[in-house]
Design brief:
The complex is a heterodimer of chains A (about 525) and B (about 450). In chain A, a hairpin with a 2-residue loop joins strand 1 and strand 2. In chain A, about 30% of the residues lie in helices and about 25% in strands. In chain B, about 70% of the residues lie in helices and about 0% in strands. By secondary structure, chain B is mostly helical. Chain B has a domain of about 270 residues: Orthogonal Bundle (ABC transporter involved in vitamin B12 uptake, BtuC), CATH 1.10.3470. The chains are: A alpha/beta (about 525), B mainly alpha (about 450).
């Protein structure tokens, strides 16, 4: 156990929503100068607990006590918790894209007198705060012009401005690449040494292992255990065991690939940025996929992976410049998404909520939405068939819902992802492009998604998996391409790949010799 | 997963009654607003001492409001797709004046003039749809411009004069079903119409049950279905006798029949066709729709075009009723239509709404208008009351959504829905564990 003083103690917190107990008798103890990780599957109650702590759910809507810095506190809203030095940074950043860094940092907290803002002071303080989080950008830069990684740092700068003593980070690295994540984690460690404790919610267990001092595991709205990272010899498997309540023998299902002939090929693909005319986002890329093969695409965020995938999928990104697509040896034209679907292509987007689903739809409508033709006669949709199709996918993919008439918004992230997969499986694709298929999904659901991907490959379909998580790519793929700055820099069978080689090709344009046996 | 508190399932009784109108979210809304309509009708029936449900008044009600309801059908589709159309009144006016002029000055026969009117509507719609869909100018701006342009055109074409229309043409706006056969003191056409509708309702319910059995989905008990059919048929037959029992020579108005056909056709189109599904998809999340192969531009184009065609029809119905077309035609119509759609449960942000709901919303306004007039309330106050009703109806909707309820007055619908599931899972917009954005969205919407 940590020897430091206790800064926060949450005792016997119980929070109910109509019909659901989200938290039951949960306790959490955080010491000064400590990074405390909270782990649990999606829906375990982690975010709810943090919302109780930060006053999003005010005192009175839950039962139990919060003792902070030695006294009991009763927050009535976020402002009151912030005054006490507890600042929460949500997964979806609360920054305003059109405003500058300075304006965002001081939003709601503007320095000045009588409602008149002292911009001079604001700017000099902003520069100071930015330096503390390791940013050198001009504080006048609009937020929309800096990347997600830097935006996350601006959020922390904003928290520092509020004289934070306890920082709560909800999935801080979910949208960041490895370099950005690493910088962020270093920053959190740096803050710790300056007396700022953090509570961190994350699905990325390697990160937790790296920075956390204590880990509290929550399952089904209850505290399962609190682990001391240094004393207890905690590793990822140990955390997973606590989260799922059993040992996952393997993170990836057993799979023997049955790889057939090359059937899909892209040659010399060039795509321009949609707004900036002379910027090429995809440069002269060529790759191919065999039947029954799972092909991984590794690259840092912004390397052009998603852009490559979307531009192939019916030119849904950027301005098409040149390139050919061959299917079964014949060149095909895919000028828009519906042609791509007709050619047997499917694209599961990385952004489920913005690009993948209409959250107003119910489950059955979502599942059939990409190929209504299939259940329609003379353009009239057959409700019976729609229901039957949805039921069939509910059973085969084990979508957790009592019935398919429910809204997709009622599902958890993992189950929404299954609905998206079902939607694209329903289009009978030959080639599935899965962009970050397990982002924001807990360990158990990930395992199921991997199983589905392998089953699709076993049916003879080609699958492309784009992922930022190298262990995932290495675990699931048969062959891996790396992308750097819009170019394919390497190609190698997964059996010959390791994180180090991949990272090298992901961060430099130098073309490496193509491995024998995989070249065309 | 979160811990569940087992919910007791009440079988039978009131909850099953809720299934009368299905269990879906949108049907729940309609159920709520339908209840509000019934309450308003009963209220005015009492306050006016029985004048509201007199045949003469009912016939007037339909005649006076058919055009707004026709507009509401098109408007709800526009709003579901995430747009708005401010030009409908002006479009109706310009079509009205051209059609009137074509008949009186160029002596075009009236059936041909109607076709001409629809074609002009389509051309105007294509113009506006092109700007919205292919150029990408927001519909608010395009139709605001259209509102000015077509109002001006109306005055330019008609020299700001009123042009009368020939008798034949007035049939679509002021005509009634013909009378024939033996005289029972009622209009036989209207009675026959009522009978047909009553039979269709019964058959539709029977078919619905059969489909549900086949699909194996849960259905309401038989007595609920029978009760539903009996209630609906009783209302239809009662209404038929009311409409058939008016002054000699009057009966169910032709404009009401045009409206009825449009409601049936467009309900079907929005609910059951690929085009209809795509409108909801575009309004709900156009990014996702685009990546699902929906041709967004085409959908936006046709939705806008369809609106102008319906505006043209509404304009002609109105001209036919008032026997002439003038520069004041269609003033403020867009606002009535938009109000009807929102009272009927559509979402300002798009993706939600139904034709039936909008018609009921329109009827709420119509009955309100009519009842207040019968009570000799002055028009200034009528406007104030209408404004408040719109505000309160949408306010309840927004409030109940924020509270995590499903929607609207249609809380009814939500309740029986959770009973359906035997209390097996989470409430709909529960700010559940790992999805903070769900809460922030519902807070900001």
């Amino acid at each position: 156990m940590s020897s430091n003083a206790v800064i926060l103690e949450m005792r016997a917190i119980t929070k109910e929503f109509p019909g659901v107990k989200a938290l039951e008798d949960v306790s959490l103890t955080v010491h000064a100068d400590e990074i405390h990780a909270i782990c649990g599957e999606n829906g375990a109650g982690k975010s709810t607990l943090m919302k109780v702590l930060s006053g999003v759910y005010p005192y009175g809507t839950y039962t139990g006590d919060i003792v902070y810095q030695g006294g009991e506190v009763r927050f009535k809203d976020i402002r009151s918790s912030e005054r006490a030095g507890i600042v929460i940074i949500h997964q979806e950043l609360a920054l305003i894209p059109e405003l500058s860094i300075t304006e965002n940092i001081f939003l709601g907290n503007e320095p000045g007198r009588g409602g008149v803002i002292n911009w001079q002071e604001a700017k000099s303080r902003a520069t100071e705060l930015l330096a503390r989080v390791g940013l050198t950008d001009d504080p006048d830069t609009p937020i929309k012009n800096i990347g997600v990684g830097k935006q996350q740092l601006v959020e922390i700068a904003k928290a520092l401005n509020k004289e934070v003593k306890l920082l709560i980070l909800d999935e801080p690295t979910a949208a960041l690449n490895e370099a950005e994540s690493s910088h962020l984690l270093d920053l959190i460690l740096g803050l710790k040494s300056k007396g700022i404790s953090s509570i961190m919610i994350s699905h990325k267990l390697n990160e937790i292992e790296r920075v956390a001092d204590q880990i509290t595991i929550i399952r089904d709205g209850r505290t399962i255990e609190t682990l001391d990272v240094k004393a207890d010899g905690v590793d990822e498997d140990r955390i997973i065991r606590g989260m799922v309540g059993r040992t996952l023998e393997s993170r990836f299902p057993e799979h023997t690939p049955k790889i057939g002939d090359k059937f899909f090929e892209v040659k010399n693909w060039v795509v321009q940025h949609p707004q900036v005319p002379d910027r090429l986002v995809v440069k002269n890329s060529s790759f191919f996929v065999r039947r029954g093969e799972i092909v991984g695409f590794a690259g840092l965020m912004g390397a052009g992976r998603t852009e490559l995938a979307m531009s192939i999928f019916g030119r849904s990104y950027g301005n098409f410049i040149s390139g050919e697509i061959y299917k079964d040896g014949k060149e095909i034209q895919v000028r828009n998404v519906s042609e791509a679907i007709d050619e047997g292509m499917a694209y599961v987007s990385e952004d489920r909520k913005v690009l993948g689903l209409n959250l107003l739809d119910d489950i059955k409508q979502s599942i059939v939405s990409a190929k209504l033709k299939k259940i329609a006669k003379l353009n009239v949709v057959n409700d019976e068939e729609e229901y039957a199709v949805a039921e069939q996918y509910r059973k085969s993919l084990r979508i957790k819902t009592p019935d398919v008439d429910r809204g997709v918004s009622t599902l958890s992230g993992g189950n929404q992802q299954k609905v998206v997969l079902a939607k694209w499986m329903f289009t009978d694709p030959d080639l599935l492009i899965l962009d970050e298929p397990t982002r924001g999904i807990d360990v158990g659901a990930k395992y199921e998604i991997y199983g589905i991907i392998q089953a699709l490959a076993a049916q003879g379909k080609g699958v492309i998996v784009i992922s930022s998580e190298l262990p995932e790519l290495l675990g699931i793929s048969d062959r891996i391409y790396t992308i750097f700055e819009g170019q394919i820099t390497n190609e190698l069978p997964a059996s010959e790949a390791d994180p180090e080689t991949l990272l090298k090709s992901m961060t430099s344009a130098q073309k490496r010799p193509v491995t024998k046996g995989t070249a065309r | 997963m979160t811990t569940q508190i087992p919910e007791k399932k009440k079988s039978g009784g009131i909850r099953d009654l809720g299934k009368m109108f299905g269990g879906g979210q949108s049907t729940g809304r309609q159920f709520g607003i339908l209840g509000a309509l019934v309450v308003i009708i009963i209220l005015f029936e009492i306050l006016t001492g029985g004048k509201t449900l007199e045949p003469v008044n009912l016939i007037n009600l339909v005649n006076q409001n058919a055009y707004v309801l026709i507009l509401a059908i098109g408007m709800v589709m526009v709003i579901i797709a995430g747009h708005i159309d401010l030009s409908v009144g002006s479009v109706a006016a310009v079509v009205g004046i051209v059609v009137a002029k074509s008949m009186t000055e160029w002596h075009v026969p009236w059936p041909l003039a109607i076709v001409l009117g629809l074609v002009i509507g389509a051309i105007i719609g294509a113009w506006q749809g092109w700007w919205v869909a292919y150029v990408g100018v927001p519909a608010f701006i395009v139709t605001l411009a259209g509102m000015l342009i077509f109002r001006g055109l109306n005055q330019a074409i008609g020299n700001a004069n009123t042009i009368p229309v020939p008798d034949g043409f007035t049939y679509i706006g002021g005509g009634f079903l013909p009378d024939w056969g033996p005289d029972f003191g009622y209009n036989n056409s209207t009675l026959l119409l009522g009978l047909i509708i009553a039979i269709v309702i019964a058959i539709a319910e029977w078919r619905r049950r059969r489909v549900q059995t086949k699909m194996g989905s849960e259905k309401a008990p038989l007595w609920v279905s029978i009760f539903k059919v009996v209630v609906l048929d009783a209302v239809v037959i009662y209404a038929a006798f009311l409409f058939a029992g008016g002054r000699i020579g009057t009966s169910f108005p032709v404009s009401g029949i045009i409206l009825g056909i449009l409601v049936i056709v467009y309900s079907f189109v929005t609910r059951s066709t690929i085009f209809g599904r795509h409108i909801y998809a575009v309004g709900g999340n156009w990014h996702a729709a685009e990546l699902s192969g929906v041709k967004i531009k085409r959908i936006n184009f046709f939705v806008m075009m369809n609106m102008s065609v319906l505006a043209a029809l509404a304009g002609m119905v109105s001209v036919a009723r008032s026997i002439s077309s003038g520069p004041q035609d269609g003033l403020g119509w867009e606002l009535d239509a938009i109000a009807a759609v929102f009272i009927g449960g559509a979402a300002v942000s798009g993706g939600i709404g139904t034709v039936a709901g909008s018609i009921i919303g329109g009827l709420v306004i119509a009955v309100l208008n009519n009842g207040l007039q019968l009570l000799s309330v002055t028009s200034d106050r009528v406007q104030i009351i209408k404004g408040l009703v719109l505000l309160v109806a949408v306010g309840i909707d927004v409030y109940s959504k924020r509270r995590g309820g499903a929607s609207l007055i249609g809380r009814f619908g939500r309740k029986d829905k959770s009973a359906d599931a035997a209390g097996a899972d989470q409430p709909p917009v529960l700010p559940s564990a790992d999805e903070p954005e769900a809460t922030s969205r519902s807070l900001s919407s």
